[in-house]
Amino acid sequence: MIVRFRGPGAGYGVTLMKVKDKVVVITGASSGIGRATARAFAARGAAVVLAARREEALAEARRECEAAGGRALAVPTDVTDPHAVQELARRAAERFGRIDVWVNCAAVHLLGPFSDVPLADFRRVLDVNVMGYVHGARAALPYLREQGRGVLVNVSSVAGAVAQPYAAAYCMSKAAVRSLSASIRQELRLEGLRGVRVCAVLPAAIDTPIFQHAANYTGRQVRALPPVYRAERVARAIVDVVRWPRKEAVVGPMARNLISQSKLTPGLVERMMAVEVDRAHLSRRRPAPASEGNLYRPEDGAGSVTGGWHGARRTMVRRALTAAAVAGTLAYARRARRAQRPLSPLNLLSRAGVPSGWCRPSGRA
Ligand SMILES: NC(=O)c1ccc[n+]([C@@H]2O[C@H](COP(=O)([O-])OP(=O)(O)OC[C@H]3O[C@@H](n4cnc5c(N)ncnc54)[C@H](OP(=O)(O)O)[C@@H]3O)[C@@H](O)[C@H]2O)c1
Fold it and tell me: Per its UniProt record, what InterPro entries does this chain match (predicted)?
């Protein structure tokens, strides 16, 4: 059911879609943000269809979703294969009767100097991160069109707005996802299909195993670039854009600040980002052998949401520091207010620097 609603649907009208009983397909659901998103939808009573390459990890994710209260189906899929993605959509519709939401989330990462990374790896990143989303969108849209409503969510990244060194293919892919989303949105508008929404989500650095999975030709170990936020935060943002569709949602204050700042001082942000990645994203002390990561073959195991980058702890510390700063400011303001005399018009003028002789009320000279 779709309810017309005056709410925070910034940039995309004001329609509230209820999540309960909706059918949600999520690619990249075996790990990280995709897996957290599947759980978040399942916990709100949605039926979730989970896609990625790892069967064991998908089966585990399916059990988590069922335990959270949702119905779930796992469909092992490689998103670079358009037929497999069509089959994913078909199986979702066959099992649950329709598709209401499609979340394109599957992606791979590649770090290394632009001129040194193998060309095949560069191409593979674009194949998974861009063509995988194209395949997803082309599989989902016929269902959404036929119903006249639904939401396509494309997970991009802050790196799609503010580029980073040693990650050209990844940044290109994430910028392409934003363009892809805008272009499809325009076509749907021209078709008059106002009920079908396309939203891009741009997370900051998130605590997932993406950096362990990444192909790496930098010779240096990769660390999540702080501040690192929890995957559940992105999952909540994705659920929110489905409920109140927006064209773009940026997740994490750091990402919001960075994007605003890069509009004001693009040169400065570009230089700062280069230094930060070189200083904090890539270890100077810990070497790493060249690796193609999970580009072509998934890692073994049951997968996980977190990458062990202590997102939770850092979030707690950040919250505690913010709370302490707010409390301190309030206490200071209260003390300052108590110390003040009541403000008369005369006081105000003298504070504004008007000499007292100029503003004495007549008759009191
Ligand atoms: N973590 C961050 O800091 C961050 C920040 C901004 C944006 N993002 C974006 O968030 C999304 C999720 O990333 P994540 O951090 O959760 O990374 P992740 O834990 O590595 O998850 C990536 C997912 O993509 C799947 N995948 C990779 N290649 C695939 C293929 N060919 N076919 C099907 N599935 C494939 C992986 O599963 P299998 O290996 O089982 O196939 C996995 O489920 C990505 O779009 C990423 O760009 C992440």
Answer: KR_dom (IPR057326), NAD(P)-bd_dom_sf (IPR036291), Sc_DH/Rdtase_CS (IPR020904), SDR_fam (IPR002347)
The pLDDT assigned to 26 comes to: 99
Secondary structure of residue 341 in the 3-state scheme: coil
222 shares a domain with 257: yes
Structural domains counted in the chain: 2
The residue whose CA has the least distance to atom 7 of ligand 1 is 157
pLDDT at 144: 98
CA distances from 295 to 40, 124, 125, 164, 202 (A): 27, 7, 7, 20, 22
Domain boundary among 269, 284, 307: 307
Query: How does pLDDT run across 173-193, given as a tens digit for each residue?
Result: 999 999 999 999 999 999 999
Query: How many whole angstroms from its chain centre is CA 30?
Result: 17
For residues 106 and 28, what is the distance between their CA atoms, to the nearest angstrom?
A: 4
Q: What tokens were used for 142?
A: 């016929």
**C-alpha atoms less than 13 angstroms from C-alpha of 329 in its C-beta half-sphere:** 6
Choosing from 12, 133, 170, 229, the catalytic residue is 170
Distance 129 CA to ligand 1 centre (A): 9
Q: How far apart are CA 254 and CA 203, in angstroms?
A: 9
Please give the distance, rounded to the nearest whole angstrom, from the Cα atom of residue 178 to the centre of ligand 1.
17
Instruction: Determine the Cα–Cα distance for residues 79 and 127; give it in Å rounded to an integer.
Output: 9
